[in-house]
Design goal:
Number of helices: 2
Strand order of the largest sheet: 4-5-3-2-7
Helix content: 10-25%
Structural class: mainly beta
Amino acid sequence: MDPAEFPILAWRWKALNLVARGGLATKETDDFALRLYVTFDLDPDRLSLADRMRISLARAFWGTKLPLAALCYVWDGQAPRGTFAPNAYTDRVRMVVADSGTAALGRWVEHERDVAADFRQAFGLPAPQVTSLILSADTDNTGDSTEAYFGDIEFRRRAGG
């Protein structure tokens, strides 16, 4: 999917509770009730030699379709909405706080994000092809539990485009 043609990612999600000990800062707290990853097929030639070597090793282990970059939209309990942060595990993923706090728990929350603009802000490059969307709830680091739902996910053109 070409984000130059369809840059707007629209979705809705609902969390019944958040991961109490989750957060952006550390590997130990890297858990969220809702995660929506957008993965990209970044040209490896744009990476440093060290990054290309790491990616080559990772792809030998995980497979050739391992994405080279991703945006991860999350519902965080504390970080302000709109926060961009590096992922605690890899610099190839940027976290984007789409929702924050408990005020909207139990309700469907609708979002529209310009993934092309978000990619440029996060990585300083034009957005390459989108290769996948990954939906998840994640509690493996904190051991907490959560219940959450996704719905109505689509890419759109910009309004008037």
